[in-house]
Design a protein that fits this description.
alpha+beta; 61% helix; 7 helices; single chain; Sufe protein. Chain: A; 2 domains
Length: 224
């Protein structure tokens, strides 16, 4: 999200100030000294805002993405505590504070890298989904479980077949971000007794995943 990008930019600016100081660039150092505290406060606020805005989708993210995000927040808090309790740490506080800033940037970068790796995998898996428009012809009577997992979206269904027709479909699980309205496809597939239905506008990705989960349930018995 945009808050993540803004946070990375602010952290890089803060580290840039430290680098300028090390290089002896007095004019640049003076400028960074003025904006250091406001940027630090803004970075903390962005961290909190980012956590609030993204907590709803944590369940669809990998442990690596969630973990690095949480560790970034913890490092930010630790760095802030060192700053506001600098008298307790004596002259060493600045060294700890700078180390904390470098740690925050490193973890934040790893957070974004793992996110983009996961997103690329998600896009690849999503593109590979081929919805065939299946019926229950040739499927023995019974209840069958089907799943489809592309990373950011996951669906698990139970399909009831009777007389080589789809009699019922139950959506057991659906992890998604903004694709909940795609769940109405279940009723449509149940009524038409086929997976050959149109995707729901605005939730096409979840629509494909749910539909594929139903097809996977039917495929488990084909030819048996």
């Amino acid at each position: 999200m945009i808050t993540g990008y803004l946070l990375l930019i602010l952290c890089v600016i803060l580290v840039g100030g430290w680098i300028a100081r090390k290089m002896g660039a007095k004019a640049v150092n003076k400028f960074f000294a003025k904006i250091h505290t406001p940027i630090g406060i803004l970075a903390i606020l962005l961290t909190v805002l980012h956590l609030v805005l993204t907590h709803e989708v944590w369940k669809t993210r990998s442990d690596a993405v969630v973990g690095t995000g949480i560790f970034t927040a913890i490092a930010m808090v630790a760095m802030t505590v060192v700053y506001y309790r600098r008298k307790t740490f004596g002259t060493a506080w600045l060294r700890y504070h700078r180390i904390g800033a470098l740690v925050v940037v490193a973890i934040l970068i790893s957070h974004m890298v793992t996110y983009f790796v996961d997103y690329s995998s998600y896009q690849s898996k999503l593109a590979s989904i081929q919805v065939q428009g299946m019926t229950a012809k040739g499927v023995a009577d019974g209840k069958y479980i089907g799943e489809c997992n592309v990373g950011f979206i996951y669906a698990k269904v139970e399909v009831t077949v009777q007389g080589e027709e789809i009699q019922d479909i139950q959506l057991l699980e659906h992890k998604n971000e903004r694709g909940k309205k795609a769940e109405r496809l279940i009723d449509e597939m149940r009524q038409k007794k086929t997976t050959g239905v149109d995707t729901v506008s605005g939730a096409s990705n979840s629509s494909r995943v749910i539909t594929k989960a139903v097809e996977n349930a039917l495929k488990t018995t084909k030819g048996k």
